[in-house]
Amino acid sequence: MSAETPGASAQGEIWDKTTVAVAEAEPTRGGAADSAPALRFKTVDRQQMAWGPIEVESLIPPDHLARAIWELTGKLDWSRFCAQVKAVAGKAGCSPYPPRLLASLWILAYSEGISPPREMEELCAYHPAYRWLTGLQVVGYHTLSDFRVEQKEELDELFAQVLAVLQGEGMIQLEQIMQDGTKVKAAASPGSMHRAATLQRHLEAARERVRRLGSWSEQAPGESRPRQRAAQQRAAREKLQRMEQSLEELKKVRAEALGAASLKDPKECRVSETEPEVRKMKQPITGGFAPSYNVQVMTDAVADLIVSFQVVQAGNDQGQLESGLEEVQRRTGVSPKQAVVDEGYLSWDTVREMAQREVDLIGGGTALEEKKAASNRKRLENSGVTPEYYPQRFVYDAEKDL
Questions:
Q1: Which residues contact 119 (CB under 8 A, 6 or more apart)?
Q2: Residue 58: which residues within 8 A CB-CB, separation 6 or more?
Q3: Which sign, positive or negative, has the C-alpha torsion 206, 207, 209, 210?
Q4: What Cα–Cα distance (Å) separates residue 264 from each residue in 190, 260, 280, 316, 354?
Q5: 357 shares a domain with 295
């Protein structure tokens, strides 16, 4: 039997090449050590092709968030989502992804501050948690985006189911609700905001384009292909619908402006032609104005979990607490006993409304500073705060914790 095993010469050749490569890359020791053999290290080959078994269950630890999300979604009713599925056993056609999987991917992505569907698709290719959820499949961004956009009503019902599960587990109590609003800039640019005359002119142009594209009966040489022409017609109709919606929204803005003392001439009102629902709002950080939405978020004070939210067009938080509490009750079936808000929500109407609903209203306010005593006092009075309840009346006693 030969002393050399099969492949020994090849293995030695590999090690020799490795040693030569390292010797070229690494400096040799100087002085008396010049005659010593060159140092040798393991190589890192990123150009190689490799394969091996993957145990999907071992991709994430037992207490990973993805497992909790999957278990939570398993307690929900998916019948409304499944009612739209047309693929059945024994017939041809592509099988869709389970709604439970798509919802779990979105919940996991949102928990990590990720919202672009393209980024989620990339995570499905390499991230252990997403690979575990999908079973090593890569869900396309178009599928993820369509699920979020087209299933709006179903997802709203799903959110209510999640709240019901959390209530059943005792994770949320809904005794005390904290509400706050934030301005979110819209995709529409300030340049898309126009007055009535410009909107009417663009509307007529949109109508003319729809009429012209709809009059193409046959494809003439040099014209676009049928599929391209159909896409152009669809885009023209969608633009016409947005222009018509913009003029309807302009009527609402003008009606609001008639009762506002800050805007004297309603004719100067503007509406975006690309995103008619947005409103021009003052930004809290920069102080400038931009097309935005007012997002109202209601949170359970004990569990620190969002229990409801609303997207409104109001430029401030006045009057939003009432609708916020109604939305919480609609989603959960429970009426909170306390509401915590900042001074932007406070007004005489809100104070009276909370008293009628028997809801304890806890509202923050600005202390009466000497420099702004008059303006602060006026603001408190407008908010329904009487002198005996001014902030300086309440002094904290650290020793008694009162």
A1: 109
A2: none
A3: positive
A4: 21, 8, 16, 19, 33
A5: yes
Residue 331 lies in a domain: yes
Same domain for 306 and 256? no
Beta bridge partners of 341: 363
Helix (H) or strand (E) holding 183: strand 176-185
Residue reference for tokens 């949170």? 299
Query: Which of these, 198, 184, 181, 202, lies nearest to 291 by C-alpha position?
Result: 184
Per DSSP bridges, beta strands 193-194 and 360-363 are unpaired
Query: What pLDDT tens digit does each residue of the chain (402 aa) get?
Result: 444 444 445 455 555 554 444 444 555 555 555 688 899 999 999 999 989 899 999 999 999 999 999 999 999 999 989 888 888 888 888 899 999 999 999 999 988 889 899 999 999 999 999 999 999 999 999 999 999 988 888 888 888 888 888 888 888 888 999 999 999 999 999 999 999 999 999 999 999 999 888 776 545 555 557 788 888 888 999 999 999 999 999 998 888 877 765 555 777 889 999 999 999 998 888 878 999 999 999 999 988 888 999 999 998 999 999 999 999 998 888 899 999 998 889 888 898 999 999 999 998 766 555 666 777 788 778 777 888 888 777 788 889 888
In this prediction the pTM is 0.68
The domain tally of the chain equals: 4
Q: Which residues pair with 295 in a beta bridge?
A: 182, 311
CA–CA dist 201, 195 (Å, integer): 10
Q: Amino acid identity, residue 327? A: E
Q: Which residues form the domain of 317?
A: 279-364
Q: Which two tokens stand for residue 15?
A: 């090690």
